[in-house]
Amino acid sequence: MMKMLRRGRFGRKMDPLASEYTSSMPEDVRIFDSVVSINLAHVLMLQKRKIIEKRASKKILKALLALQRGGVRRVELKPELEDVHMAIEKYVIDKVGEKIGGKLHAAKSRNDQVAAAIRMTLRRDILDIQKEILNLAKELLKLASQNSKTIMPGYTHLQVAQPTTFAHYLLAYAQRFLRDAERLSQVYERVNLSPMGACALAGTGFPIDRSYVAKLLGFDGLVENTMDAVGSRDFALEAMSALAILMCGIGRMAEEISLWSSSEFDMIEIPEEFASTSSIMPQKKNPVVAEIARANAGRVLGELSGGISLMKSLPQSYSLDLQELTPMLWNAVDRTKSTLRVMSKLVRGIKPKPEVMFGRVESGYATATDLADTLVQVADLPFRDAHAVVGRMIANALREGKPLGKLSLEDLKASSREIVGREVKISEEEFKKALNPEESVRSRTLPGGPAPKSVKRQIDRTRKAVENLKKTVASREKALSEAEKNLRRKVEEEFE
Ligand code: ARG
Predict the structure, then answer these.
(1) How far apart are CA 271 and CA 287, in angstroms?
(2) What percent of the chain has pLDDT above 90?
(3) What is the pLDDT of residues 96-128, one digit of tens each?
(4) What's the fold here for domain 2-106?
(5) What are phi and psi of 317, to 5 degrees?
(6) Which residues contact 10 (CB under 8 A, 6 or more apart)?
(7) Does CATH number 1.20.200.10 belong to domain 114-148+166-359+463-485?
(8) So what's the pLDDT on residue 1?
(9) How far is ligand 1, taken at its centre, from the CA of residue 181, in Å?
(10) For the residues 443-468, what does the mean pLDDT come to?
(11) Of all protein residues, whose CA lies closest to atom 12 belonging to ligand 1?
């Protein structure tokens, strides 16, 4: 290696501590396949543009093909080689000799090559993560469709607010995660652009064909400005932001899974396979998967904030600081992926406890708003007065320890005398109906509301959106596979 890179400029090897400290070798394994493909495409282009002669390009391509087949084990991943880019070049030179192999790096730089390789690796990860999100959304939709009549309390400020259904609650997450998947679709558009040809930062005077290389590698276009192409990582920050936002939602859901399954709330049962027990307290069922998911939300956000901090004051264009962002990106990707996978399985096994949920609706006087609404509608009270009348009735009930089911029209009349100085005109039937949680849910047929009818529409629409996005992901996967096949074909044609 000393011979290859340093022999001109330096007289001595790099200090072993220094090379180990600055090498990206361990992390580079992840981008190995992409870097080999980039080299193949680059050589095809050099040959097409007559920058290298066919005889040389064939020899280099042959060595690269052998490397592609043999995989990363074929190269020496020693830190003194600095990175996988140098290891691959060394492999080619060892195979075909310096005279020919030494031509491989004309009109490219590690700077454009690494940016291209990260983008190529990341685009596959984005598609994988989108599929995992859509799987989770499908599990949520399935559970929702089984629970459109399971009444549960909706909370604000973690205080019982209004009755809703378990289905409506699950749909809130399904629709939110669908947006996360859509966000990643937009990120993909900016990730899948080719920096190749930017070389170190100023491009090259060689008559290269950037678009040809981009097409061979399955990119949808170019990162135009060559300095921007090698010096920017906002595509990675954007991907990490989308992952951090996604994981923030997952963390909230995980938090609620652990809350609702606690003996205090006791509204859901999580499957045993996703819980652990205590080494000392035999009664425990700890929601450990949800806890690790919640923690991973923090870790992914940590990678994003680390990454932005690393980038924020860097001079244009390439500095080796950029190398340190890459493993943060992969950490964020991997933690998100594994979290989505396990959470989908966990969600599939969740069992709601309808009686307990209903009990919480009653003990929290969740239909108070409905009664106030009824007073507006049938007794012609301004909402503010209705709010105060019902509020007083509940304050009295709480003082007397009277649960929702024991409240009578007399109680309402008493509080209305206290608040507005007269008795409100409302029938016994209207009173009972207003306080009935099932009636409350059934009345909320508005778009997006918890009424079973409305929930069914939401499930249908969300399912369709999931299927549509699945198709987009599949067609992008197909385009990438076709680009890979085409590159292989083009390389093989060189040997016909
Ligand atoms: N190992 C580097 C990275 O991952 C590749 C580019 C190195 N460029 C350089 N000029 N040293 O970012």
Answers:
(1) 9
(2) 99
(3) 999 999 999 999 999 999 999 999 999 999 999
(4) Fumarase C; Chain B, domain 1 (1.10.275)
(5) -115, -70
(6) none
(7) yes
(8) 53
(9) 31
(10) 98
(11) 323
